[in-house]
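Dear support,

Our group has been running a series of protein-ligand predictions, and this particular one with magnesium ion is the one our PI (initials K.S.) wants archived with full inputs and outputs. We had some confusion internally about which version of the output was final, so please treat the block below as the authoritative record. The input we submitted was:
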Amino acid sequence: MACCGGDGNLREEDLSVGKPRMSGTPKIVLVGDYGIGKTSLVAKYSNRNLAGYAKTTCFDYSEELIDERKCQVWDTAGSEKYKSMMPMYLRNATVVVIVADITRESDCVHANLREWINIAIKSGPDNARILLAGSKSDLISIEDVKSRCDIVNDLLESGEAIPERVCAVLYPTSAVSGDGVSELFAHIGEHI
Ligand SMILES: Nc1nc2c(ncn2[C@@H]2O[C@H](COP(=O)(O)OP(=O)(O)OP(=O)(O)O)[C@@H](O)[C@H]2O)c(=O)[nH]1
Ligand SMILES: [Mg+2]
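Confirmed final output from the archive:
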């Protein structure tokens, strides 16, 4: 369900879906650049078929069972123009999942994750858990997936310290093969 006005601007009532009716229900927010596979990940988890690429407008909202608990899942649009909306999307988030395309060079994946980690820390609640997922693992070999995750994890450990509530381990996933998708959502389930 897309939740934006026809002018592409978010209205306050668009966010009512996350308000009192759902209070107490864990809120999971997926963030990351456009076209990296956030919508596909949620669709794969909930066994929905996607017909081609339709970029998300503002955010899509669905309710999913994660670890046998009903959760609100907010799948945000990655386009640059929606970045200013992040504080609204991230409001009251329980878990923020940052998605990055693992097929890109490791230092690029790392820089991307770092940027989104900073956004999530700055714009999200202080107690939200932040998890990292790599997408499109089906497009590179298993060996490359492993070595890229290792390099990115090493890069995350080095340099500027990351707060403890960020689980700085990159989970590889593929919305095409399904690899890692249930593992990622089980990981989310550990934090709700
Ligand atoms: N090979 C492969 N393609 C993928 C995977 N996940 C997504 N894609 C493709 O990548 C494109 C973008 O996927 P989306 O899930 O719409 O990306 P998004 O992050 O939601 O994009 P925005 O809504 O624009 O932010 C689509 O053509 C998908 O088919 C994956 O795991 N493997
Ligand atoms: Mg999308």
